[in-house]
Amino acid sequence: MTILAVSISAANVEEAQEQIDRSVCQGAEAVELRLDFLKSPDEAAAAFLVKFVKEKDLPVIATCRHISESGAADWPTEKRLKVLTAAMEAGADFIDWEFAQYLQPAVQEMLTAALRRFQACRLILSAHDFHGPFEDLSARYEAMRTLCPGAVVKLVYTARHINDCFEAMDLLYQEKEDLIVFAMGSAGMMTRILAKKLGGFLTFTCPEEETAAAPGQIPIGKMKTLYRWDALNQQTKLYGIIGNPVGHSLSPAVYNGCFETQSRNALHLPLEIGGEQAEFNLFLESVLQRPWLDFRGFGVTLPHKSSALEFVHQEGGYLEPMAERIGAANTIKIGHNGQLSAYNTDCAGALDALTQTLGIEKKQLRNQEAAVIGAGGAARAVIVGLIDVGCRVTVYNRTLKKAQDLAEEFGCRAAPLEEIRNSRARIFVNCTSLGMIPNVDSTPVPAEVFGPDSIAFDTVYVPLETRFLREAKAAGARVVSGAEMFIRQAVVQYRHLTGVEPDSERIRQIVLDCLNPAGRAR
Ligand code: NAP
């Protein structure tokens, strides 16, 4: 069973004790004492902290990292050895030592002698590359395993892109010996979480975001609640939201909350894919080549929605006619034998949000004048939806050419963004990113355009109430928030990806909880 360890990287003993206490409360299964972070690591402090953790009945890993592998200070080898020996004497279960240092015969001799004295303590033999993946991960692993067969081998490298994660996961999947392998940095995040599904020996977390000892470490609270650590096992099915950026996405909270409610053995991950179609394709191909990862589908957001449609098309998968018409897919399902299907749930989400929030039938939108502001992916879905129910649509966009292209494609009108102040539309839909955090003071529509008869629908949902909606409301208009669209498209997407109906009230509760300022602070 993979151990959930918390790395404690405090500057003094008192701070370390507080961090340990907080981590234990949150369910830490082991504690790594990063003794190199202490202002002045000494044998007494090491022994004291080891005993402090042992009193809580948890395994202890004592680490006093060499500066060449991101240790906090340039402590001499002799001092590091003394500190670790004191930790062993006090009952440490593991000590971590760098492979590069272990290669020095004198050091190896001293460590071997110490470990012989404290037979309950095991060596974690580690190697780190802070610049990128190792030149040959498997060869490095073999060399370390051969040199020290009884050790837990630990291999850590920096992922420059999410596609760098696969070799770490391959090694974990293939190797049956006790092994720790993961990728650092935000691009490597999934390797830390999936260590449990793939049978890794241990994964490292931190007490809180601010106390991370290494790039990309996930706070233990987030690992336990958002990423469902306790529910993960080899059979866990995987889902994710693909985009760039995805850090702000509500999808992991929504899906994982629903999985919890429905007791499903499943996990949803944020999957940030930098680059364009080539990087996107490589990620999907890598997933499809590894059915043992059990990825069952993805939500897709900016900037990959058209790449998603293109990929599924190239692979000969099913394209939902609506997604084809819109020219973008926000949902990819991986079915039996890797059979792909692409859908677009934004259009249904937008129309349902509009009609259900206003309490009207779709037919009541017939012949209404609608102004769609923006000409990107969201605008395409909204335009198709509005045209299908009989609205007369004008597309307003900063780049007029894009609005004109859309107008030609979908049979509507186009106008420059400045013309919005002369619009005679009743329905205004903001499909630009104006008003979204951090640009909360911007809006694409001057306040005087709205009147009591207007309907203002903002696709932006962070914040919940944008300036666009606030000004429309002040003019007496009826308003529809982007959250209403998000919730409804998520319901349809969940159904496509999992084949079961989600609890839409639970989704609403999670979304509103995340979006209200008190909720967001968590
Ligand atoms: P996109 O494809 O990048 O399109 C962005 C649009 O915004 C373009 O028309 C762009 O105009 C315009 N724009 C950007 N910055 C602008 C500025 N400073 N001034 C004027 N116009 C500007 O993005 P998208 O995928 O359509 O997403 C747009 C918004 O929809 C996002 O805020 C997203 O969160 C939201 N959305 C919400 C949901 C939901 O469920 N609620 C679903 C999907 C999307 P140019 O063409 O001139 O660059």
Give an account of the 3D structure.
The protein is α/β, with parallel strands linked by helices. Helix 1 packs parallel to helix 2, helix 3 runs parallel beside helix 5 and helix 10 crosses helix 19. Strand 10, helix 10 and strand 11 form a beta-alpha-beta unit. The chain is elongated, with a radius of gyration of 27 Å. The chain contains 20 helices and 21 strands. The strands form 3 sheets. A 9-stranded parallel beta sheet has the order 7-6-5-4-3-2-1-8-9. The protein has a 6-stranded mixed beta sheet with strand order 11-10-12-14-15-13, sandwiched between helices. It folds into 3 domains: 228 residues, TIM Barrel (Alpha-Beta Barrel), CATH 3.20.20; 106 residues, Leucine Dehydrogenase, chain A, domain 1 (Rossmann fold); 134 residues, Rossmann fold. NADP nicotinamide-adenine-dinucleotide phosphate binds next to helix 14, helix 15 and helix 18.
Runs with pLDDT <50, length 5+? none
What small molecules does the structure contain? NADP nicotinamide-adenine-dinucleotide phosphate
How many β-strands, per DSSP?
21
Rg (C-alpha, Å):
27 Å
CATH secondary-structure class of the largest domain: Alpha Beta
Mean pLDDT across every amino acid position? 96
> How many separate structural domains?
3
Mind telling me which CATH architecture of the largest domain this is?
Answer: Alpha-Beta Barrel
Assign a percent range to the helix content.
25-40%
Full CATH superfamily name of the largest domain: Aldolase class I
The tally of helices reads 20
